[in-house]
Amino acid sequence: MAQVSYEEVNLMLRLYDMRREPRLRQARAWFVENFHPTSAEDMMEKYPQGSEENTYIRMVISYWDMVASIVNRGLINDELFFESNGEIWVVWDRMRTIVPIWRGAFKNPRLFANIEETYKRLEAWREKHAPGSSAAMRNMMAQIISKPKGD
Fold first, then answer.
1. Do 28 and 19 form a contact (C-beta atoms < 8 A)?
2. What is the pLDDT of residues 93-108, one digit of tens each?
3. What does the domain layout of the chain look like in residue ranges?
């Protein structure tokens, strides 16, 4: 296990504390429960600009993009981060089908590249330590999504 600095631990705790902010916590809960776009059109229809849901999406994605930027620059030890932060994996898994469309629309091939890079490294780390866990997680999420509300 790699040595972790006090500064890295302190930064992790500060990022965790930010996640506890009530509005961001509400946005994160909504995102995980409800954000399942099938296309960019589907997303714009369900969550139009100016809607509360669109605000939640932007809050969650911008928070995790900022965190991924910090992680990707090596300011937090990967193992320290990956051991206790799986939500970023879920966030990318939900948004990855529409990101190519956003990148084209905004003419920005690096849009959300921080989240994507952290996701890939997290998935590789997870597969090294728990082979098959990513596939199991995707299966579990697919079952939750396909289950009718109220069951």
1. yes
2. 999 999 999 999 999 9
3. 6-144
